[in-house]
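Can anyone check this?
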Amino acid sequence: MKRKIVPYNPILKELARKLRNESTKSEVLLWLQIKGKALSKYAFLRQKPLGNYIVDFYCYELNLAIELDGLTHGWEKTTQKDFEKELFLNGIGLNVLRFSDEAALSNMGFVIEYIIKYIECYELNNFTYFCQDDLIDNPLNRLTRFNRENRNVPFYWDDSRVTPP
C-alpha cells in the first residue's frame, strides 16, 4: 500500500528541528516511552510538520497525532488556534489525543495506557470506548464536546476524574 503524503509548509521544517532540540520535560519523557517502536509495532515521529502546523508526536500508521499542552494553551487565543489545528488534522483523517503537560508529568503511566487503548481500538476498528459521554476528559473526544457545549476554554485532561482504560 502506497503511503499517503501529507503536504506541509517547508518553512516549518527548521522550526520543527528547533522544537525537537528544545523539547519540554513532558515531551522528552513521553518521547522516551514511544520513540521508534518502543511502545508497540508502530513508529512515532516528534515535532512533525503537517500542513501549516507542527504536531508534538505523529504516527502515520495509526492516523494519530498526540499533543501535550503547556500553560499557554489556557489562553483564549491559543485555544482558538488549537481548535483550528484539530479541525485541520481531523480533516486530513487524523485523530488527536491531547494531554496537559501536568498530566504527562504527574501520571505518565496513565497517558501511556491511554495511547495503548487507542492502539487497541484502532486495531479492532472500534472506537466506541472513546465516544462514551461518561469519559468527561476523553482526549480523543474533545472536538465533539467542544462543539456540543460551545466551549471557549481549553481541554485539560485531569487523571483524578477519569478511570484508566
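Reply from J.R.: I decoded it. The first strand starts at residue 45 and ends at 50.
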